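Holo prediction — NAP.
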Amino acid sequence: MAKTIVILGVTGTQGGSVATEFLSKGWNVKGITRNTTGAAATALASQGIELISADADKPSSFTNVFSGAHVIFAMTNFWQPFFASFAELSKKSDRATGEHSYAVEVARGKTIVDAAAKALEEEGTLERFIWSSLPPMKKLSGGKYTYIYHFDAKAEVADYIREKQPKLWERTSLLNMGFYTSNMIKYGGLMGVAKDKETGRYMMKKPGKNTAVHPLVVTSDTGKFAELLVRTAPGKNLLACNSMTDYASFIKLWSEVTGVPCEVIEVSVEDCDKAAPGGVGREAGESTACSSEFGWGQREGTLVLPWEIDPNLKLTSLREYFESEDWEAFFAKQDE
Ligand SMILES: NC(=O)c1ccc[n+]([C@@H]2O[C@H](COP(=O)([O-])OP(=O)(O)OC[C@H]3O[C@@H](n4cnc5c(N)ncnc54)[C@H](OP(=O)(O)O)[C@@H]3O)[C@@H](O)[C@H]2O)c1
């Protein structure tokens, strides 16, 4: 009989990829959404995915959502509460929005973890709990970078599983998604590629040395990383990336594919803060600066790369990723 995976964020980027991968492997796929009748959910249902209505802000809605699950893929979205409250909270201080979203993300994580632990205790059938985590950057940087709330909140949830739900921890693997390759399209002048209005030249501004190597992930491969964690023993702390690459090489490849030159410019975290005040520029800037300076935990020796677990894992190359995007639409937007 087919095994069952229950996916958080099934209507989104990470969860959607996990659903596609496990459907293709013949699994029984269930997905959690707050809106089972929305367009995204309806499209998933037509592919054979069973939608479950639940909201991580409402712990009571998580009763029994994981019943029958052999695998749970769990993620939370830091940026939704961040941007929903930014206009109001950023007036108070440049930490207020990050602190709020940190608290929301940790509370959501605990709701999900407690429900998964309960399902394991009651049914005993859960084989793997995958937590979409990120490393504790404040700790890794020795307290130098303290605004990277979207990493530290996910790391706190990982600590919660280990400390408060040890039985679940025995069946857990952590999936740390690297920086999305698609950030360069989504985040324009800050961390992305953008056309300079005065010179007409393309540039990417980012903190940290141009030679620093970062984990870059093609999000459509999320399902492959999750599948890797299901078919191997638990206890992994996976740095999910398609390539460990510096941004200068990344953009050089982009220029080769698009035929458009682009300069990568080193900026400071303060420059990011000035470009996007209120905490958002600092949070984004610190994450790249910290990655550049301290890495993601490689020095601590706890992280493992996908190809170290399975040298034959077929992942999308950066060139294939670039070739898959609609650059005509991207360039047209730059001229608007
Ligand atoms: N950008 C990067 O470089 C990067 C790198 C690593 C990690 N990340 C992290 O990735 C996360 C975002 O993941 P994504 O890209 O997959 O997001 P996404 O595409 O925006 O999808 C978000 C998903 O979360 C679900 N969701 C939101 N609030 C919920 C709630 N209260 N209860 C249940 N489900 C809820 C949504 O489902 P419904 O709307 O259907 O309910 C949706 O499926 C962020 O936390 C970010 O920090 C980003």
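READOUT: The first strand starts at residue 4 and ends at 8.
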